[in-house]
Design goal:
By secondary structure, this protein is of the alpha/beta class. The protein has a single domain, classed as Rossmann fold (3-Layer(aba) Sandwich). The protein has seven helices and eight strands; from the N terminus they run ββααβαβαβββαβαα. The strands form two sheets. Strands 5-4-1-6-7-8 form a six-stranded parallel beta sheet. β7, α5 and β8 form a beta-alpha-beta unit. α3 packs parallel to α6. The structure holds magnesium ion.
Length: 194
């Protein structure tokens, strides 16, 4: 079976980061207010340290607010019948190296609860996704699609729209807008069976 590496945040599930920030600062930002990858760009000046202490305190779990993207779970379950699936997510925040360990626990819990058909030994929590070598990669972050995979799918997101078609093509990356589109591409017999 071919191996697929699938990212977690903004690829399988979404939400939480902005909701927690809004709760903490009593603000009403939406994802339209963001052009940066990290929602912390919306933290008021001088408050970032305090906010990161709170975020990584273990008292708040971003995955309690997070929801699967439409069709993601159903399509991944179908793919798991014909592909060897690895869920790969980065959890280390260099600004809070010690505190960010709690994210590994939260991610692990979300994955085993929501993707029970994935072998728990195929959960890769890391800071070095580029070391993972596989046939197919699915991620919303362009820089995570480096390496020599045959198929690289970039899930469309507010923070990756600056990469135009030429740039994607030069790196052999294809932009996809939904999990139904991923299903159509990867459940093609020619792609499965090579
Ligand atoms: Mg992601």
């Amino acid at each position: 079976m071919k191996k697929i590496m699938i990212d977690l945040d903004d690829t399988i599930c979404q939400g939480g980061y902005l909701e927690i920030l809004n709760d903490y600062f009593n603000t009403n930002y939406t994802y339209d207010d963001l052009d940066d990858y990290y929602v912390e760009s919306l933290v008021p000046d001088g408050k970032l340290d305090e906010y990161l202490d709170y975020f990584y305190s273990g008292k708040v779990n971003v995955y309690d607010y997070s929801k699967p993207l439409p069709d993601a779970i159903e399509v991944i379950e179908k793919l798991s019948k014909v592909y060897d699936i690895y869920i790969c997510s980065a959890y280390v925040d260099r600004r809070r190296v010690r505190g960010s360990g709690v994210m590994a626990l939260f991610k692990h819990d979300w994955i085993i609860r929501n993707l029970p058909f994935i072998d728990p030994k195929k959960i890769i929590l890391t800071g070095s996704k580029e070391l993972v070598s596989c046939d197919i990669k699915i991620d919303d972050k362009f820089s995570n699609l480096k390496g020599c995979s045959d198929i690289k799918l970039l899930l469309d997101a507010y923070h990756n729209r600056d990469y135009d078609d030429d740039k994607l093509k030069s790196r052999n990356v294809r932009r996809v807008k939904s999990w139904r589109e991923i299903e159509d591409i990867l459940l093609d017999e020619n792609v499965i069976g090579e």
